[in-house]
Queue: 4 jobs
Job 1
Amino acid sequence: IFMQSSTMKNLFFKSLRSKQIAFTITFATLFVAVITLAIFEGNKKTVTLTVNGEQEEIRTHASTVSKLFSTNEMEVSEFDIVTPSMDTPIKNGLAIRWEQSKEVAIAVGEEEQSIWTTQRTVKDVLEEAGIEITEHDEVSPALTTKLDEKNKITVDKAYKFILVDGGEEVNYWSTLTTIGDFL
């Protein structure tokens, strides 16, 4: 009986020691994982990204602006403007500005063209495209209008003509194409 009691005690303590070892290993593993995660997160740099005027803070391990965009699955087109340049090293507190371009169709009379631009108003797009507007031309939408999802601008160029009424000559500007419409 004494031997059995001693054997039972040994088995009990072995079982207890095994549980303590398992607990210690689990606790140590969990502790190392938490510390590693804290160090990993603590080493991220904070940058401010402004996209088309909207600001967002991003925490990253990226080493350059280019890597920041690729790791966040942001595609920059060749017509977009990114400041500072894509090869700029990431530093804590870096401010990045990204102006996304969009395609705009411009119809001047019968001629139509498309340009990619980062400009946001009709006037700025026409200036960038090298299209001169006079005070008599009709532009739709208006020059001060911000571009919308349609991204189409129509320009009707005015022309000068002289109307002779009872021997008196009067100069007029018009975008209309027929005399009947003008009258």
Note: The helical segments are 2-42, 65-71, 122-129, 179-182.
Job 2
Amino acid sequence: QEGLIFYQDTLSHRFEDFLLTGGFPLAINLFYRSGHVSSWVYQLYLSWIEGDIGRAGKLERNLYQIMSRILAHQATPVSWLGLGREAGIASHATVQEYVEILEKMYVLQVVPFIDLSSHAVRYRKNRKIYFQDPLIFHCFSGKNNGIGDGFHTESRRFLNNPADKSKLVESVVGMHLKRYFGACYYWQGKQEIDFVTGRGNKFNFIEVKYREQVRFSDFKWLKTTLPKSAELLVITKHHLREESGIRMIPAPLFLVNPAQGIFTK
């Protein structure tokens, strides 16, 4: 961990780039070559997704109606029924089917609710839906905002809004946890825990607070909400601190190596 701290500034800059380009080599190479990702790149990936949706026997119109509502509910729990109503699609089962197809295409990821008392995953409860890669998020966000030839500019505009950027960082952290642990969930009671991971009776609780200031006092609810022995990991923008069962670590450091003594796999 000490070695990574030495490179924290470099990692932070690279993470900012990643939030813009995602993990697709085509976009990354263009960005580092010219400082810009051409709109045809975004259109290329949208065309790929549209084509696969069509080959699955689904409608492009429904795809964009559903995606519009998923974008509106980024980082917040939502039901299939609610998405369907907002998207103007009569059957919630249809919405679920589209999302499941998009999961298999590595476009979206569903994060279900977990009951901490029974340790059971409740698939009938509201779920969170995240984009699996920032570039794909920007593709659909730009399209939803009517962008035709200015995707990169729109992406930068989006990331200049701290609240919007924080939601995208939350999706990146969630996908990283999913890959590392094989599964991740969320929990909601009087408070909401962004992510719950782990196996058996051992849970890890993760909150994403990607902002300039994060205080330990923000988490006074911890001891009255979670089991007494629970620790909370807070993914931050800058802070690297620990106090009273709360660990803070900047997102770039965590994403490079989540096994740096923070979790036991």
Note: Residues 31 and 37 are 5 Å apart (CA to CA).
Job 3
Amino acid sequence: MNTYGKSLIQAVSIILDGEHCSDIKEQALCILANIADGDTAKEFLITNEDLLKRLKGYMSNGNVKLQVASVFCISNLIWRDEEGSLERQNRLKELGFKGILKQLLATQEVSLFDRVKTALEQFSQK
């Protein structure tokens, strides 16, 4: 991430902002979720305001695949057993992510419900 992070995020952002089908956008979100699982990358992602806005938008857009992938990314960012998780959780709470997750609990889609439940369980239980 230190060497290629900015270019990688820029490439993913182009895909997320473009006129690509939802399957391609889902894969771009999965790339972000995998990046969010890395120690160095968490800080890189949590400080990227534009990227966080995109994730928030995909969590609310109604396409279940995109919602699941974006919630997965948030879950990886806030995983409570990792260093700095409380600070990342607080940042995402301030930006309204926890509220969106709570709203998504009303979904009838099992895969989305399970992913949202897991993410909410990660919010500050230390």
Note: Residues 64-78 form the longest helix (15 residues).
Job 4
Amino acid sequence: TCIITDVGSVKTNIHEAVKALSLEDNFIGGHPMAGSEKTSYEHANDRLLENAYYAITPTEKVKQEYVKEYTDIGAIPVEISYKEHDRVVAAISHLPHLVASSLVNLVKHNDSNKEYMKTLAAGGFKDITRIASSSPEMWEQICMTNTKNISIMLDKYIHDLKDIKSSLDNKRGSDINALITESRDYRDNIEEHNNSIIP
């Protein structure tokens, strides 16, 4: 009669194992959308889940009373299918980690001996690459369990980068203006959650 859950960043392989073990009556997949790039107990936070979105991926067989009980933990539950969850996190979490890491390495490999790039790297660069400080072991495992979705999103991103390069090469300033305007308006619309009792 107990609820079985997990807190993994990829859900498909977990759900497949649950099905193979005939545990669908008791399983509710979970992925708290909270945390930081830091690891180890010293970075633990007892308010981590408060006011944070928590993706839940219940099986089709689990009782709704279990789902209700499980979601009463102070977080903001978002019920989603496990396949859609993995597609979503590929775009908003997994690909950004790879982009941040590759951007840091681009700077590292193209800096001069005097390291001007490293020295002058300011807020914008540090903000966009903060997640590159995450655990390599954990992110290897995440990427290797969601390869198909990440690869699809990466193809789309490469296509967009080629469009940006074409705009730069052909000096189409209006394209760059439109790119930044659209991204600014969408980014400004993303709700901020600061993981505290009072928003």
Note: The chain has eight helices and four strands.
